[in-house]
């Protein structure tokens, strides 16, 4: 019997309009009632994810920034990883051949030089928003991650530049089709969940996890039971063919899966697509 359930937010728990449906909320509360440790593992900032959970009346552990931060149920920071200062300096000060907008995440918030109002729709529940600033004036220390946002084809070209420049000194990850992230080496949701599990006296084998994007890959592959969303990136599905694929986030597929699992944990789930 699994003792911890970890959930990606966008494209997994949240519907396409960035809300938590009533069936999903009910299923999460049932897990909590059964004393499952509920963890939300997201690329979002703590200042974005925590208010959403609070509005829903949910109290769980939080892995934010794609594993750069881990928080307990009271909001106490358990772990933090930042980009090495020299890497952050190079990302911020190198002239990349791209039209992608650059976004920097620090504990104090989301910083960018480019106002992209349409990006705020994803944060309507929390009111989280960017702060316009000169990124080259930011300190080299204290930057958890840097995101580049643009159409996918543009980011693929940028990924090649970044990979050639940094090699193994930083990790690159698509958290969505239109978002490419530069992260500290070895920093991902899977590593953060492993750290949290050990803090709780558990192992990854005691955990189940749900996700839809490449930033969920390590977490889904490492837990005792990983579940891939039907709307997941094709690359994720192809890299984890051994994992079960369920329905779409728009139909609250996580809720349907959990309802089945709570009733019959040892029976195979047959999703309806």
Automatic annotation (TrEMBL):
Reaction(s) catalysed (UniProt annotation): 4-amino-2-methyl-5-(diphosphooxymethyl)pyrimidine + H2O = 4-amino-2-methyl-5-(phosphooxymethyl)pyrimidine + phosphate + H(+)
Arranged from A to Z, the UniProt key words for this protein are: Hydrolase, Magnesium, Metal-binding
Q: What class of enzyme is it?
A: hydrolase
Q: Does the keyword Ubl conjugation apply?
A: no
Alphabetical list of Pfam families matching this protein:
Hydrolase_3
| Record-linked InterPro entries | Cof, HAD-like_sf, HAD-SF_hydro_IIB, HAD_sf, HMP-PP_phosphatase
Q: What does this protein do?
A: Catalyzes the hydrolysis of 4-amino-2-methyl-5-hydroxymethylpyrimidine pyrophosphate (HMP-PP) to 4-amino-2-methyl-5-hydroxymethylpyrimidine phosphate (HMP-P).
Q: What is the name of this protein? A: HMP-PP phosphatase
Q: Which organism is it from?
A: Serratia fonticola
Q: Which gene encodes it?
A: cof
